[in-house]
Amino acid sequence: MIPGDSPGARSPASRRRLTLWRMATCEVCGNNYGMTFEVHAQGAVHVFDCFSCAIHRMAPICEHCRVQIIGQGVEVEGHWFCGAHCARAEGRAGIVDKV
Q: Taxonomically, which superkingdom (predicted)?
């Protein structure tokens, strides 16, 4: 990086202001961090310090292979599967992946 080439270095001194972040605690790892984020889902508010913790808490688990479902997944009659293959392996008929 070229010295003085950051957005902060290019900004006029009069426009610079100190930003104080509200410290919050990640509900998964307990890290007290100034750049946490909130996920609002199903009427609840969750606080995380990284996407990894959010995935750990929020991603459903495939009921066949037990992997966390990060992508689309397949929901059949209230049961979650990572894909049609796992749904069929659990006896669900007529399930196809959407691509």
A: Bacteria
